[in-house]
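Morning F.,

Quick status update on the modeling queue. The single chain you submitted on Monday has been processed. Sequence for confirmation:
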Amino acid sequence: MAAALLATGWFVTVGTSVAAAAGNGGGFTAVSPPARLLDTRTSGGCVSGPAGRSLLVGGFAGVPSGAAAVVVNVTVVSPSAPGYVTVYPAGVAPPTASSLNYVAGQTVPNQVTVKLGTAGAIVLFASGGCPNLVVDVQGWFAAGPAGTGGFDGVTPARVRDTRLVGGCLVGNETRSIPVGGVGAVPSSADAVVLNVTAVTPTAGGYLTVYPAGRPTPLASSLNFTAGRVVPNAVTVGLGTGDSIAVFNGSGGCTHVVVDVVGYYAGSGDSVVGGFVDVTPTRSVDTRVTGGCVPAQGSREIAAAGVGDTAADSLAVALNVTVVAPGGPGYLTVHPAGGTKPTVSNLNFTAGLVVANSVHVGAGTGGRITVFNGSGVCAHVIVDVVGAYVTATSPPVNAPPVISSFTASPTTVAAPGLVAYSWNVTDPEGDPLICTIDGNGDGNVDVTVANCQNPGSRNVTVAIAGSVTAALGVSDGSGTDAATASVTVGADPVESYNIELRYQSSISPAVQAAFDSAVARWQATIVRGVPSATVSLSAGQCSGANGAISQVVDDMMIDVTVTAIDGAGGVLGQAGPCSTAAVDGLSRFGVMKFDSADVENLLTDGRFGAVTLHEMAHVLGFGGSWPGKGLLDDTPSDPRFTGARGNAEWSRMGGTGTVPVEAGGGLGTALSHWRESVFDKEIMTGFLDSSGNVLSRLSIASMADLGYQVDITTADAYTLPSLLSGLRSAGPSVVTDEQLITLPVTPVQSVG
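Structure tokens below.
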């Protein structure tokens, strides 16, 4: 029965496109049809071992690389021993939480909502029995601050295990469990997404999970039999004391484990696809109304409009239960009036009571259709537990307000550094983004995220005459703008000068490579920077410099070639050691290389490219991005945010902001262009054996740092056609050689 392993909890958000939902932090967008990401029976083999199996989700099967979280169906197939599966974000410590439990030989699914981790990946860990796992993606939640009803994922965390706290719930007992304000879930949350597990109950029954302080509803969240361990995904509103209530509807005692995987925000503007908590309400119990759903037959059932669920809801959150069927099979739940998909929502075996969480679009008349894909008539219970709507209320948004925008000094000689200061607020407290055009040329020089309240940024002003600088601020809906005037004197052109000090013996071939790199960067950077006095003791720059106490104009670099660790391993160290307070640009740095590596690179003709690359780092490429506000260091998908670099990225055909390397470790991650996108571009962290080029993108990024550049000195470059499909994807496996050069931490800021 292949459909029984396709997808549980199929979700359709009618009328919501990927582009529309992406602008709403936490809003849900369906992947339609649901797509298979992994089946270990045909790829990779069963899952075992403490590391589990990493699975890349962002950038695949309709899920964008920038998604915050995904809804997947995870099915365990025929494990050899009992155990549990934990699904969690890549890059975090394995949590003490489970996503589904199994016994030997069982095929069991559960819906899992999980935050995406490093590189947009999740980890699948199985505790025993080496089970095969099938993973199908159903939809994704957009990144960004979540408005009302918007979803925020958290690393799965255990909020209650009655085996450790409080003891088992006796028959007909209700227990309140605080969730809001616990761990990463704020007390302002409206609802939470949980995985609730009944552990070895002494008698069969069910659990009902609902907001604390409300009457116990006639609805179930999961069903169990004596002695079994049964989980289910539960979405529930928070009630009195930011707590949930758990009711044990059985005659025995059962332990309960509650793990939280995310929450829906309860403040801010509404978002499309946002969740609205409702009082859990039973829509149908076919044992009471209508009779069992016939084999290979369907039944339309009311959903939107049931209880306090809005009749115009886009989609509904349900708990669907099949009661003691006479044989094995599956249920498929889909919007009424639509074509039945080839997926399943719930898998069952003869004689058992099985429940699963289902999220499905509301179809004709707000109804859903339940299809019984088995050879027996099956009784079905449908409880409505929530809804996803077009908006929880008409969005009301007051625009941000700029209280002040000033320039200091107001008169400067070109090129001169001007400090632009502001004071901005938002009536609703929404996150703000500020942009500054400090040169009055219509181009954004600085973009500042979360710029609420007073702030300041420096901009090098190079246009002589009267400059009208502009500040723009946006909360994503409304905007405000202000200007400030600066008088800029004549523009004396001074060439940029790089001086090398050799701290070890250097062969003529090595010196020629350094001289070539100096000439290239002096031709690219076309204006000098203010002189600065640098005073450092020998070895102060990560042990790689000689003593210095002198005025530097414009850049001095100490160069050392010496034995470090032999061929391979660490190539050396390179980076700025002293930066100027006036503009944040490098004035003194070091380049130290392993002599064995240098000989190999000279032999194969690549040392010139390495020298040009590492000199860029000394000038500030990569290492100076954070201090200049040019790096969005989201671990799964870091990006360069400089305006000039991104203009070149767009010209190449890229979308969004420039992808930055997320992998490679210290010295590579967050300080290079992404290898899987840019390949032969010289400022990736990997050296291509067939040649490397300095593109307009890298030169434009130096302008974003504050240098005056001649972009026409760039080499010809286009994005690799074979990699064009990966422009928005996470890091991929690369075959080029990674040259590990450790960064140098700046130790001095000079006037």
